[in-house]
Structures are given as C-alpha cells and as structure tokens.
Amino acid sequence: MLNMKLTIDISKANASASPLVTPSGRFHLTREIGRGAEGRVYQASSISSCECRVAVKVISGSRNVCSDHYLPILQLVKHPNILRVVNVEESERYTYIVTELCDKDLFTFLTATPRGLLSEHHAAQLFGQLCRAIRFLHKSGVVHQDIKLENLLIKNDQLKLGDLGSARFIEPVGPKFEESISKSTSMRNGRTFIYLCPELLTKYPNKLKCDGRQADIWAMGITLFVMVSGCLPWQEASPIDENFSMYASSGSLRKFLPQTVSGSLVNLLEGLLCINPLERLDSFDVLEHSWFSTFIYETSQGAPMSCKEHETLSCGKKRSSCGVEGSLSTKKHRSHDIQ
C-alpha cells in the first residue's frame, strides 16, 4: 500500500524510511542528483521496470499545471533537443516533474574541461542543437524565458533544452508582457539574472515592441560566449556594469574574447547580443550564419547536417492545436501523462 504521508511530505524522509515514491506510486526516488532554487532533482526508477531510469524534479508547492501554460506547452513541444517530460504529478504540497535522465548539465560539462571552454568546432555541435530547439519553440509560438547553462543537459553527447517551467506562449505586447518583465527583473540575485537582456533591465524605448523571442536570443548569446571563452562578458546588461557600458559604446565584443576566437564567431555573437532587440538575430537566421558553414555538425539523430538544411516541423503555432490530458488519480494527488 502506498505510504501517502511519505509521498506528500518528502522533506521528512530519512535513510531508514521506505524508498521514496511519487504520489502515483509509479516511480521510486533513489538518490539526489542536483538541487536548485525551485527544488531538488532525483534519479528514479519505474516501479514496473527497475531498468527504466528517469529524473524527478520535486518542487515545493503545487504548480496547478492544469490551469496555466505548463501542460499545454509540454503537449505541444516534441523535439529531439528538448528534454522529454513523461509525467507530471501533484500532491497537496509538492509537484513532481518526471523527465528522461541525462548525464550532466552544460555548466558541469564545461567545468570538467581543462580550461572551462570548448573549441569552436565542439561549440558549434552543441550550440547548433540549442539553435534548432529554440527555432522549434519559436515556430511553435512558445518562448523559453530561462535559457542558461544549468538548463542545457547533455545525454550521450546530445544537447537537451530543459526546464520549461518559465516557458510561455508568445503574447502580444501588453499587460502580460509587462508582468513577465517584472518577474524577470525580480531575479536580480540569481544566476538567471546574468542572462537577462538589456531591454528587461532598463527603460529601453523598444521594450514594448518585444515579445520574449528577443530575450531568448540574447540568453543564447551569453551561453555561446561562455562556451567559447570560459567566462561571462559582464555581470548584468545595464549601464551600471562597466564591461557592458564599454560594449554598448563600441558595439564590439572583440576585446572581451580570447584572440583565438574567429572573426566569424565574433560577428555571430554580436548579432545575438545586439543591444537593439529589433536588430537582434532571430531564431530562423542564427543557423544560417556563416560561422556554421565552417563546420558540419551532427544532428540529434547522428547524421551529418550542414547549417543550410531545413527541418520539417510538424507542430503548428496555434495554442488550440495542443490538447491537455490530465486525470485525477486520487483525492490526494493528480497525475498527468505527457503523450
């Protein structure tokens, strides 16, 4: 019989207790593999098949996934470079997000390299996969809103974009966008703040012409910068940061990057990190940049693909095209299979 007290109040479990399980009783939580601002991540196995290993993110509080964007977006986005969410369960006090299990995140991957950075060839392989994931999201009418090294996962040398908890459908400019800006700027003390674009941090005149896609592109630029340099260009994209002010004045990133970085890559980074959001590259242009033409990188299926090859995306843009399937399993919890 399922121990409901144990599954609802996971924080009180101890080493001598029975194996932790999700509210539905489908997954055993075997060991902690990470933690963040929202909660902890556990490796888990399916009760029906111990060989089926997954990751379970346990978040304090119910996300009320039926009434917000989360489940509809999970139903909509199916892509080899987006972390697959297989189940979402809710108890009275916790939300359990069950995903495929990956090896490590990109931050951990970089810190394990000799100099904390990647060659341009290796960076192109991984960044190209991120570009395809973001292009898919944007074409599907979704913005991620939390792109950072910790949310990029590696599985068998394949990059997976994870944590869609902040993702939203693209909204017309208006009160909802202003609310999104308010939430983003409230993260000043977190690592996510480093990835925020200048129009979210200052009274930029073109702010209200943005819809979130430009912010995703900026965060991609910061991510690529760190991948090839091993450091951040600045601490925040606002005039109070000396490095950012220097970049804003000159428009050039050359002085902030190692001399070994190619001119083509510098040009791409300046397109991603263009201060004017209306002149920033978009997700459909990035893979067509000349920097990628230097490399033949692998697709998520392992077949060589040049940057000129176009994906056939089967998912529509409209919100109404995605169904939400959820069932109330017991009075204590809800479980949602992501089909």
UniProtKB/TrEMBL annotation:
<dbReference type="GO" id="GO:0035556">
    <property type="term" value="P:intracellular signal transduction"/>
</dbReference>
<dbReference type="GO" id="GO:0005737">
    <property type="term" value="C:cytoplasm"/>
</dbReference>
<dbReference type="Pfam" id="PF00069">
    <property type="entry name" value="Pkinase"/>
</dbReference>
<keyword id="KW-0067">ATP-binding</keyword>
<keyword id="KW-0547">Nucleotide-binding</keyword>
<feature type="region of interest" description="Disordered">
    <location>
        <begin position="317"/>
        <end position="339"/>
    </location>
</feature>
<dbReference type="InterPro" id="IPR011009">
    <property type="entry name" value="Kinase-like_dom_sf"/>
</dbReference>
<protein>
    <recommendedName>
        <fullName>Protein kinase domain-containing protein</fullName>
    </recommendedName>
</protein>
<dbReference type="GO" id="GO:0004674">
    <property type="term" value="F:protein serine/threonine kinase activity"/>
</dbReference>
<feature type="domain" description="Protein kinase">
    <location>
        <begin position="27"/>
        <end position="292"/>
    </location>
</feature>
<dbReference type="InterPro" id="IPR000719">
    <property type="entry name" value="Prot_kinase_dom"/>
</dbReference>
<dbReference type="InterPro" id="IPR008271">
    <property type="entry name" value="Ser/Thr_kinase_AS"/>
</dbReference>
<dbReference type="GO" id="GO:0005524">
    <property type="term" value="F:ATP binding"/>
</dbReference>
<feature type="compositionally biased region" description="Basic residues">
    <location>
        <begin position="330"/>
        <end position="339"/>
    </location>
</feature>
